[in-house]
Specification:
- The complex is a heterotrimer of chains A (about 180), B (about 240) and C (about 1050).
- Chain A has one domain: Rossmann fold (3-Layer(aba) Sandwich).
- Chain A contains six helices and seven strands, in the order βααβββαβααββα.
- Helix content of chain A is about 30%, strand content about 20%.
- By secondary structure, chain A is α/β, with parallel strands linked by helices.
- In chain A, helix 2 packs parallel to helix 6.
- A five-stranded parallel sheet of chain A has the order 2-1-3-5-7.
- Chain B is of the alpha+beta class.
- A five-stranded mixed sheet of chain B has the order 2-1-5-3-4, with helices on one face. Chain B has a three-stranded antiparallel sheet with strand order 6-7-10.
- In chain B, strand 6 and strand 7 form a beta hairpin.
- In chain C, about 40% of the residues lie in helices and about 15% in strands.
- In chain C, helix 31 links the parallel strand 18 and strand 19.
- In chain C, helix 9 runs parallel beside helix 11, helix 19 packs antiparallel against helix 20 and helix 35 packs across helix 36.
- Chain C starts with 6 loop residues before the first helix and ends in a 13-residue tail after the last helix.
- The chains are: A alpha/beta (about 180), B alpha+beta (about 240), C alpha/beta (about 1050).
């Protein structure tokens, strides 16, 4: 049987969703036999591959870099999953949304800094005015809310997908 | 004079209820579930959240169960695709209106808004989030008011007026700018009418009114206390 | 004056009032409503008062209410004893002196006369003013008042609203007296029920039933409320009624109070209506003084008083439960019903609330009886309704019409159509929660049910007319913004739902909308309508739902092509002129470049926007003129003549070769893609120009022996000399475009053949088929189709016309034929079945034809052509028409009469419309529209056949040069994008730097116009009639631009 190509992506989030993904205990062994993890923080690939079957995206969209990345991912993925509250609702990263970006950066990197009081510009992508959920940028096929979504739910959704089923996972989790 | 008994149908089932009862009361007594959010047993119903809408045969419009008195022979439908669709939108709109960052909320896991959304199978909302800038009133020594989580159900307004008699809370401004305010828009801590009874906190369905010192998921509300208090008052009266 | 306690006292007051109303000396009445005052009525009143004092002329001066014709303000009326009351319009303070002088001599100022009233039916009584002045039209012969029926407005504009005696003089308080004498409230209820009067606040609940309900509730205290919280934008019926006739309201309420057993009445009125509040308070004082309010009313032992409460202006307080909350001192937020106010209202007591206008109908029903009342109106909605007809309509004002009158009567008969003949796009009824109704539905009778069926509402009677300058997306946005800001915030659908709706609509007007947004909008709107707590939320989505239903294409334009045709949504347009130009030429740019003395850059800017600039510089319909903001100062910038001059200066000079090189450089690298274009008219040439620039191989086929289409073969030489066109075509040829002439697509070359040989095909054939009227005699020698005649002339062929020519039709082809025939020395008569203002031909052209000696016979349709023995035309018979009902185009349909007239003539030219010859399209399997044109995707111009595109007349039916060219441009863009799978358009858009300074002061120059050749110099020659600008004029004109394209960056 051909293995399902799965990618995971980490945008503006705390990586908790990825932790939860790894937290599925023994289920990971049977799952590993059915999937190929082709891209993500857990593997070494640099460039997002073409023709991915399932991509799980953690985190909100916070920078122009995130937008570009997400659009590319969408083009190259059959099924896109918003993984966790940040990807689904904006959640904690969106708590900055009512504060103007320059004020925010000033507060953190200048007023709040002990030393090197300067807003970093080199090598870091510029922030968008607001961090927003994936759905506001690209079509999302499935949403898996939770902070983080329970490992069991993630496991169930992925193995369903591997078996060719698609279901909304909300029944098992709380929203918001 | 005891109230007259009326016969009505809820979801096809014939039940009897007392004249003067609302559809919601009749349904509850007979073990029929109708989702609600602004309603709290014992408080004057206001029909604001529109989650308790039901279909009544012969009427095109959707009817709020909490404020509509039953009529003899009335036939009520509590679940249908049309009702679910509309209730779902109401919930979605509440989520996008303010900043319900549930993951960081004291009421996470004990929130009526959250559990209704889960019960309705909501996994995402289709509307763009507003992300408004809203304040938190921490001036009260024991409690806090977080406007980010307020859904304007006005339970606090009513419990304070109907039960405590202090009339601390009122709604100010209009439309999307409407807010809960204490006294004449003073800080809660400066309110001279507040008796610090905490009933508003217990009545609040979300984490908008909470006890200070609670961490995430720690604020559990006792709305049943409010209802039973009202019941006992009524018996006394 | 003592309290009226018996009929004797009543009669005495009445006599006193009549002596003031119809005195034995001249009486001058000034319309002193807010509308009149806003137009200077107060100054006028004082001017008269001073003039009377100064001159010592014995005349009565009175302030009266408003007669309703707001567009004629300030209104005044004058009555000389024994003569009709004459209504004067647009009277200014400095007219007072001379009017008074005229009056003292028994004359009237002829220039200010509007109409006269010989006898007035106040319903409760009638006043005979007198007969005379046969030259002055009766009030109801004036279009604005024709078919109006004044029941509610029965006293407005006649009596002095501040004088109770004048009200009593016209039968006021008689109905109350009758009710009190009868002493049987139940019979009044019966009358109200039988009259079928329905609540005029908008919901249309039967008033009689409402009253009966209230009567049956037992309580020791009851309230009567008049809802005068009129808050709809564009609606001011109630304000005017109260300002003009406050006592009618009081009388209605007192009767209501008696019948329903209430002793307290409250008028809840907006604080923004100070004059109405003032007059009401004075009326109430007078009522108390005369014993009509307070204890023992009219000596019949009934006690009732009225209090005026001013609302703070929240729109939602018009909702009855919110109104009650507001009266109780709470925030104006509605509560669910039941309980209804009649059960539990103000302070918990039974309360009856009716709209102002409902109360105005009470006294008439009591006086004249329910049968009389229900004679007027439609079976389900009897009586009349007052509407405020406002917006883009010629005559605006308060209009009282029987319910059930079709919408078009309001708009076309009373309102006299769009301003300056502009096309009306929609009418919005019912205020901010009403819906927008398109012209196709103007047959709809205006009553509660019919309007609801269209997704609109009657509301309180606002009627806002919109024309092509209104963007329907913006209209929806505007109304949602209003209801959104007036939402009380109590229920989720209205509070959050409207907020989301508004945010989505904002996105669409900013050009950031998606088609998914439209689905969400629709879903949200239905949800808000279904789930909101009160009427505000339940009706607030109506503007969205109706515009989505009737004007969906406008939403799609905003989303897909990022265009707002009306030019309202600023983010979507460079400037108003650019937005109105079918080719979207960057007009401010070429004006500025010329101003900077950069002719070659200006030419490049022009030709890259518009490949036929010389031709369009002469014949374009110049929609830019009507949009130019310079009109607010003086006249529009003559943009067309400037680009004509710029184009001619290069195309017709020795700088041409140099410029050709500059353009050829812009050509992109060769792509190897082959594109066929069918039709070398404006659309085909434009597409060819851009596709060649984009590097494609372009072959253009045409059935004619040369390129240019209608420009070459239909437009006469005197309008468009062919030298410039030749150059324009030459440039296109030099870009590498191949032309194959005398070849008909679909006949000489099958479509399948093109499919095999080309990567894309653009079909842009013109409307060369003359519509034909088959009448007796059209087969005779000397009967010609206009296009055939024009084409033959263009080719230099002689068409025998004879000395007298009859031309049938009113379009551009008819006028071109007429002027061409005049140049052949013929005596020309044009017959047209409607009136001159209805002619589709360009107005300047019609005028030119007239100047050149063409005769016009309007309201005349061809009947038959009569020939002689040789089969040659001898004469034509026409049938006179009269104008009937208005059609959806806003013009009246011609209807044949029995009258037939004969005109001698030697030839007849039929110019009754052109269409596309589509036999080939049918054979090729392209799907067609009912109108016989090719069906294409509005945005991509794809036909039903892959890789085949269509544009120009073949898609729209006969249109004009610029529109056709716009299609060519759009097609080129889409064909390239689809062939190359990327958007390369920006690569051929020239980036020319130019100054962006907005002139500090507008240039003082006035508009220059083209120089028109004198009639005698032009009528016998083919010389160009309108000569172009000089360099100085062009420069002047360029400097007149206000630079609307320069946007000041938002300062944050």
């Amino acid at each position: 049987m051909k293995k399902v190509k799965v990618a995971t992506v980490w945008l503006d989030g705390c990586s908790g969703c990825h932790m939860s993904l790894l937290d599925m205990d023994a289920a990971i062994i049977s799952l590993a036999q059915k999937i190929d993890l082709v891209y993500g923080p857990l593997v070494d690939t640099q460039e997002f591959p073409e023709d991915v079957d399932v991509t799980l995206v953690e985190g909100a969209v916070s920078s122009q870099d995130d937008v570009t990345k997400l659009q590319k991912i969408r083009q190259r993925t059959h099924l896109l999953i918003s993984l966790g509250d940040c990807a689904v609702t904006g959640n904690v990263p969106a708590m900055r949304n009512s504060i103007p970006v320059n004020k925010l950066l000033q507060r953190i990197y200048v007023e709040g800094a002990q030393e090197g009081k300067v807003v970093p510009t080199d090598g870091v992508p510029a922030l968008l005015k607001q961090a927003r959920p994936l759905r506001e940028f690209v079509k999302v096929d499935l949403c898996l809310p939770g902070c983080p979504p329970p490992a069991k739910t993630i496991a169930a959704v992925i193995s369903d997908l591997v078996d060719g089923k698609k279901r909304e996972a909300a029944l098992a989790v709380k929203f918001g | 004079m005891p109230n007259k008994k009326l016969s009505i149908r809820i979801d096809g089932e014939l039940i009897s209820a007392l004249e003067g009862q609302t559809i919601l009361q009749a349904a509850k007594v007979n073990g029929k579930y109708i989702p609600t959010l602004c309603d709290l047993e014992g408080l004057t119903p206001v029909g604001a959240c529109r989650l308790c809408i039901v279909e009544v045969s012969g009427i095109d419009r959707l009817i709020p169960a909490c404020t509509t008195p039953i009529q003899d022979g009335m036939s009520v439908t509590t679940t249908s695709a049309r009702l679910t669709h509309n209730r779902r939108i109401s919930l979605e709109l509440l989520f996008v209106e303010r900043n319900h960052v549930c993951a960081a909320c004291v009421s996470n896991g004990h929130c009526e808004l959250q559990s209704l959304a889960s019960a309705m199978g909501i996994s995402t909302v289709r509307f763009a989030y507003n992300y408004p800038k809203l304040g938190v009133d921490l001036s009260h020594p024991r409690f806090l008011l977080d406007h980010n989580r307020c859904i304007l159900c006005t339970r606090c307004v009513r419990v304070c007026a109907d039960l405590e008699g202090a009339h601390v809370w009122e709604m100010t401004s209009r439309g999307i700018h409407a807010r809960i305010m204490s006294d004449l828009n003073q800080r809660w801590g400066d309110s001279r009418s507040c008796t610090n009874c905490g009933k508003c906190v217990q009545a609040c369905p979300t984490g908008a009114l909470a006890e200070k010192g609670c961490a995430v998921e720690e604020m559990v509300k006792r709305t049943d206390n409010i209802s039973s208090l009202i019941q006992r008052r009524e018996v006394q009266a | 004056m003592p309290r009226i306690q018996d009929i004797g006292a009543f009669s005495a007051v009445r006599e006193a009032g009549l002596a003031k109303l119809v005195p034995a000396v001249p009486r001058i009445g000034i319309g002193m409503g807010t509308c009149g005052r806003g137009n200077g009525a107060e100054g006028l009143y004082h001017a008269f008062a001073e003039a009377i004092e100064r001159s010592g002329i014995n005349a009565v001066l009175a302030g009266v209410g408003c007669f309703g014709a707001c567009f004629q303000e300030p209104l005044a009326n004058i009555r000389l004893p024994g003569f009709p009351l004459v209504i004067l319009h647009r009277v200014q303070a400095n007219d007072a002196e001379r009017i008074l002088n005229d009056v003292s001599r028994g004359n009237l100022p002829p220039d200010l006369i509007y109409c006269k009233v010989e006898e007035w039916d106040h319903v409760t009584a009638s006043i005979k003013y007198g007969r005379g002045y046969p030259e002055i039209p009766l009030w109801n012969d004036v279009p604005f008042f024709k078919s109006q029926k004044k029941i509610v407005l029965r006293n407005c504009g006649f009596i002095n609203p501040d004088d109770i005696e004048e009200y009593i003089a016209i039968g006021g308080y008689q109905a109350l007296y009758k009710v009190l004498i009868d002493g049987r409230p139940e019979s009044v209820i019966e009358q109200m029920k039988a009259s079928k009067l329905r609540g005029r606040g908008g919901a249309g609940y039967p008033t009689g039933n409402k009253w009966e309900f209230m009567t049956k509730v037992k309580a020791d205290r009851k309230y009567i409320i008049c809802n005068a919280d009129e808050g709809d934008p564009g609606a001011y019926m109630n304000r005017n009624e109260i300002e003009s006739d406050p006592h009618s309201l009081l009388e209605g309420m007192i009767i209501g109070g008696y019948v329903m057993g209430a002793s307290e009445g409250i008028i809840y009125i907006r604080a923004e209506y100070p004059l109405a509040v003032h007059r009401l308070n004075r009326a109430i004082e007078q009522g108390r003084e005369y014993g009509l309010l307070g204890e023992n009313i009219l000596g019949r032992g009934f006690k009732f008083d009225i209090e005026v409460v001013e609302g703070a202006g929240a729109f939602v307080c018009g909702e009855e439960t919110a109104l009650i909350a507001s009266l109780e001192g709470q925030a104006g937020r509605p509560r669910p019903r039941p309980p209804f106010p009649a059960q539990k209202g103000l302070w918990g007591y039974p309360t009856n609330i009716n709209n102002v206008e409902t109360w105005y109908n009470v006294a008439p029903i009591v006086t004249k009886g329910p049968a009389w009342f229900s004679e007027t109106g439609s079976p389900k909605s009897s009586g009349t309704k007052v509407f405020s007809l406002v917006g883009k309509v010629t005559s605006t004002g308060l209009v009282e019409m029987p319910l059930g009158t079709p919408l078009k009567t309001f708009i076309y008969n009373i309102g006299e159509g769009g301003i300056g003949g502009r096309q009306i796009k929609a009418v919005q009824t019912g205020g901010p929660s009403g819906g927008c109704i398109p012209p196709e539905m103007f047959d709809t009778p205006v009553d509660y049910e019919s309007l609801t069926q269209l997704g609109s509402i009657m509301g309180s009677g606002g009627m806002v007319v919109m024309d092509e300058d209104n963007c329907m997306v913006d209209v929806a946005r505007y109304f949602v913004e209003f209801t959104h800001s007036e939402s009380c915030g109590k229920c989720i659908p209205c509070r959050v739902g409207l907020n989301k709706c508004l945010r989505i609509l904002n996105r669409v007007t900013e050009g950031a909308g998606t088609m998914h947004h439209l689905e969400l909008l629709d879903e949200l709107s239905r949800y808000i309508r279904e789930c909101s707590l009160c009427g505000l939320g339940q009706t607030a989505p109506n503007p969205v739902l109706t515009t989505l239903r009737h004007f969906r294409t406008e939403f799609e334009d905003h989303i897909v092509s990022r265009r707002c045709q009306a030019g309202v949504c600023e983010e979507l347009a460079l400037s108003p002129c650019e937005n109105s130009c079918p080719l979207h030429m960057n007009i401010p740019r070429f004006l500025q470049l010329y101003k900077e003395d950069r002719l070659e850059d200006a030419f490049e800017a022009v030709i890259m926007d518009n490949p036929l600039p010389s031709s369009t510089g002469r014949v374009c319909q110049h929609p830019c003129d009507s949009r130019c903001r310079r009109q607010t100062i003086d006249e529009a910038v003559n943009m067309r003549e400037v680009h004509r001059f710029i184009a001619d200066s290069i195309l017709l000079s020795n700088r041409y070769e140099h410029m050709v090189k500059r353009i050829l450089v812009r050509r992109l690298e060769h792509t190897g893609r082959k594109i066929a274009i069918a039709g070398a008219g404006p659309a085909g040439l434009t597409a060819a120009f851009y596709l060649a620039l984009l590097g494609h191989d372009v072959t253009v086929y045409d059935a004619k022996p040369a390129a240019g289409g209608m420009l070459r073969f239909a437009l006469p030489e005197y309008r468009l000399p062919k030298t410039a066109l030749e150059r324009e075509i030459d440039l296109i040829e030099r870009l590498g475009v191949k032309f194959i002439f005398n070849t008909r697509i679909g006949f000489d070359i099958p479509l399948n053949d093109l499919d095999d040989r080309f990567d894309a095909v653009f079909i842009s054939i013109g409307t060369w088929k003359e519509s034909w009227v088959y009448l007796p005699g059209t087969e005779l020698k000397g009967v010609y189709p206009a296009l055939m005649f024009l084409e033959a002339t263009a080719r230099g062929e002689e068409v025998p016309l004879g000395p007298k020519v009859a031309i049938i039709g009113g379009g551009n082809a008819a006028i071109d034929s007429a002027r061409t025939a005049l140049r052949k020395g013929a005596d020309v008569t044009v017959f047209y079945r409607r009136e001159r203002k209805d002619m589709p031909a360009i107005e300047e052209e019609t005028q030119a034809a007239k100047d050149e000696g063409a005769k016009f016979v309007f309201l005349a349709a061809p009947h038959r052509v009569i020939g002689d023995a040789a089969g040659k035309v001898k004469s034509i018979e026409i049938v006179k028409t009269r104008l009937g009902e208005y059609d959806a185009s806003g013009r009246r349909k011609p209807i044949s009469t029995d009258e037939i007239r004969r005109y001698e003539c030697d030839s007849v030219i039929f110019a009754v419309g052109e269409s596309v010859d589509l036999d080939f399209a049918r054979a090729s399997g392209l799907s067609l529209k009912e109108s016989g044109t090719i069906e294409v995707n509005r945005f991509t111009l794809e036909t039903s056949r892959p890789r085949f595109y269509g544009g120009g007349d073949v898609v729209t039916g006969a249109s004009n040069v610029s529109n056709a060219m716009a299609y060519g441009k759009q097609a080129a863009r889409n064909i390239d994008r689809q062939l190359m799978e990327t958007n390369r358009w920006a690569k051929i858009v020239p980036e020319i730097e130019f100054g962006n300074e907005v002139p500090e002061e507008p240039s003082p120059n006035h508009r220059h116009n083209g120089h028109i050749l004198a009639v005698n110099a032009r009528v016998r020659s083919n010389a160009e009639v309108v000569a172009g600008f000089t360099h100085e004029e062009t420069l002047d004109e360029s400097c007149r631009c206000l630079r609307c394209d320069v946007k000041v960056a938002n300062v944050s």
